[in-house]
Structure formats: C-alpha cells, structure tokens
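Entries read chain and fold; for instance:
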Amino acid sequence: MIITLLGLLFMLQGLGVVHGSSMTNSNFWAVAGPVIALGGLLYIASGLGRLGSGSRPRR
C-alpha cells in the first residue's frame, strides 16, 4: 500500500500539483508515478490472491 501511495505522490509532484521537490514539474515522474502505483496495486492483489489459496490441513 505504501508503494501505491508513493507512486501517486510521485505522479502529483511530476504534474506540479505538489511543490517543493526536484521532482516538481518533471515529465519523468509524471509517467513513472502511475507505473509505480500500478506495481503497488499488483503487489497487493497478488498477496490477496495467496490468502485465499491456502492449503487445508490434513486429517
């Protein structure tokens, strides 16, 4: 979840919405931010998929 939030922050800095960083108004971070956020969401989704596929104990 932190990766996703940081990706969104990087995107907002790249777009110039959030100021005060060398990343402000940078096209690189405007594009890389959503990619990082998507990676964070995929990481969360893969973890949630593993929770439901646990093995059952043998009797």
